[in-house]
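Below is one such protein, fold included:
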Amino acid sequence: MDVKLIAKCGFYCGACPTYINGICAGCEKEHVSGDCFTRDCVKEKKLNFCGECRNFPCDEIMNRPRSTVLDKEWLRWKRESKHTMSK
């Protein structure tokens, strides 16, 4: 998988019809600082996407509207399994 096709929120742009049809250039080109919380956070931490963060899934990605297109149920499961594994 080409890491350049992973949006800052973790969505795989290579599966997005809008991206595939050339309507979207991807979050790096479509957004600027202050425009997208997730993009700004990932860039500040010098990561490729938020799934690389040791705090993933953080409170912000879980609760902030439009911070990710990732499924909220999956994010809750990921958070619970992360806590279970650390015990």
In short: Residues 62 and 76 are 8 Å apart (CA to CA). The radius of gyration is 13 Å. Residues 3-85 form one domain.
